[in-house]
C-alpha cells in the first residue's frame, strides 16, 4: 500500500511485500533489513504448523504465527543469543485487505512513533509495503473471564479496573496533538497536518465508512435481508448529522482516543502491576467519554451468532458499584 511521504521520512521503510505468515523468504528479508549485521546462513527445522526455527550458528530465530488477530496476520519473532539473558522479541504485522479500507495507516504509524517518544514502547523497527515490524510488549492479554473474577473486578480489589482506568486517563492526557504538529510540518504533509489541526475525526470517519457500504451482497437472500433490516445510506448520514449537532455542546474533552479497547488489546505485565494498550489502528481524536464507553461495551461480550444477529450480555456492563474510586 502507499504510505504518506511523511512516513518514509520518519521511519525505517523497506520496499518489501510479505505475502502471508508462511512467506518465510519475505520474513527473512525483513529480518535481514532490521538486523543487517547478523549471519544469514541457517538450517530450517519445521516443528509444526505454527513454529519455524531457524538456527543461525550462535543465533536462533523462532517465528511463531499468532492467530488471535481479528483482522491482521501477526508473527512473533524471538532472537536468542548466548549473551542475552532473555530473547529479543519483535512482532511482524501483515495488514489485512479489509482493514486497509478502514484504517488510516499513516495515522497509526504516527501514533506509534509519538507514543514511543512518550512511553518508550512500542518501537517501530521497520515499515514494509503491507505491514510493520515493532517491539513486543511482555505480558498477557486480559480475558473477559478474568474480568469477571471478584478479585479483579469487585471493590476494593478491582485490580484490572483500576489499572485500566489509570492507564486510559494517562493516555488521554498525553500531548499527542502538539507532538503531531511538531512532526507533521506543512512541507512534509500539508493535508495530514490540516486534519490534525481540525482535530475531531469521529464524524469524518463515520461518513467515510458509510460511503463504503455496498449497495448489495453477493448472495441475493443476504441482499434482501440487508435492505430490509438495515437503514439506508441516506438515513445513516442523517443520523450522523444529528449526532454531530447534538454533541457540539458536549462537555467531554477532545483527546486522542484509542477507539478499540477490547480485552485483547490490553496487555497485563507478568506481575500484574501495570497494563499497556496495543494495536493503535483506530486511534483518532475524539471525545474521551466515547473511548471510555466504547471500552465498557466490551464487558458485555458481544459475540455474533451470525453476521446479522449479535448477542450482548447487558448484565456484564459495568455499573457504578464496580468502578473503583480513589
Short description:
Belongs to the choline/ethanolamine kinase family. The protein has 326 residues and is an alpha+beta fold. 38% of the residues lie in helices and 20% in strands.
Description:
The protein has 13 helices and 14 strands. It folds into two domains: 5-135, no CATH class; 140-214 and 247-322, Aminoglycoside 3'-phosphotransferase, Chain: A, domain 2. Residues 39-60 and 304-308 have low confidence and may be disordered. With 326 residues, it is α+β, with helices and mostly antiparallel strands. α8 (176-183) runs antiparallel to α9 (186-198) and α10 (202-211) packs antiparallel against α12. The strands form four sheets. The protein has a seven-stranded antiparallel beta sheet, sandwiched between helices. A three-stranded antiparallel beta sheet has the order 8-10-11, with helices on one face.
Amino acid at each position: 500500500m502507499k504510505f504518506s511521504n511523511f512516513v518514509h521520512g520518519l521511519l525505517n521503510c523497506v520496499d518489501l511485500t510479505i505475502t502471508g505468515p508462511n512467506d518465510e523468504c519475505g520474513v527473512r528479508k525483513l529480518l535481514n533489513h532490521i538486523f543487517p549485521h547478523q549471519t544469514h546462513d541457517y538450517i530450517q527445522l519445521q516443528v509444526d504448523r505454527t513454529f519455524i526455527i531457524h538456527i543461525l550458528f550462535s543465533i536462533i530465530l523462532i517465528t511463531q504465527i499468532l492467530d488471535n488477530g481479528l483482522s491482521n496476520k501477526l508473527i512473533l519473532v524471538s532472537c536468542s543469543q548466548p549473551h542475552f539473558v532473555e530473547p529479543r522479541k519483535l512482532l511482524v504485522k501483515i495488514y489485512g485487505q479489509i482493514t486497509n479500507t478502514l484504517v488510516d495507516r499513516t495515522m497509526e504509524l504516527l501514533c506509534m512513533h509519538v507514543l514511543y517518544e512518550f512511553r518508550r514502547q512500542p518501537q517501530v523497527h521497520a515499515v514494509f509495503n503491507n505491514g510493520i515490524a515493532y517491539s513486543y510488549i511482555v505480558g498477557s492479554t486480559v480475558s473477559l473471564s478474568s474480568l469477571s473474577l471478584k478479585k479483579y473486578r469487585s471493590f476494593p480489589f478491582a485490580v484490572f479496573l483500576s489499572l485500566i482506568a489509570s492507564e486510559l486517563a494517562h493516555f488521554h492526557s498525553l500531548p499527542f496533538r502538539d507532538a503531531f504538529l511538531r512532526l507533521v510540518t506543512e512541507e512534509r504533509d500539508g493535508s495530514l497536518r490540516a486534519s490534525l489541526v481540525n482535530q475531531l475525526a469521529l464524524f469524518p470517519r463515520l461518513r467515510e465508512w458509510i460511503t463504503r457500504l455496498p449497495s448489495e451482497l453477493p448472495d441475493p437472500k443476504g441482499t434482501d435481508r440487508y435492505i430490509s433490516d438495515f437503514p439506508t445510506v441516506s438515513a445513516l448520514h442523517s443520523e450522523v448529522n444529528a449526532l454531530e449537532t447534538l454533541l457540539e455542546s458536549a462537555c467531554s474533552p477532545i483527546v486522542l482516543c484509542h477507539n478499540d479497547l477490547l480485552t485483547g488489546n490490553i496487555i497485563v505485565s507478568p506481575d500484574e502491576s501495570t497494563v499497556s494498550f496495543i494495536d493503535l489502528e483506530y486511534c483518532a481524536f475524539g471525545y474521551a467519554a466515547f473511548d471510555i464507553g466504547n471500552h465498557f461495551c466490551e464487558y458485555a461480550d458481544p459475540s455474533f451468532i451470525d453476521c446479522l444477529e449479535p448477542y450482548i450480555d447487558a448484565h456484564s456492563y459495568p455499573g457504578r458499584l464496580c468502578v473503583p474510586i480513589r
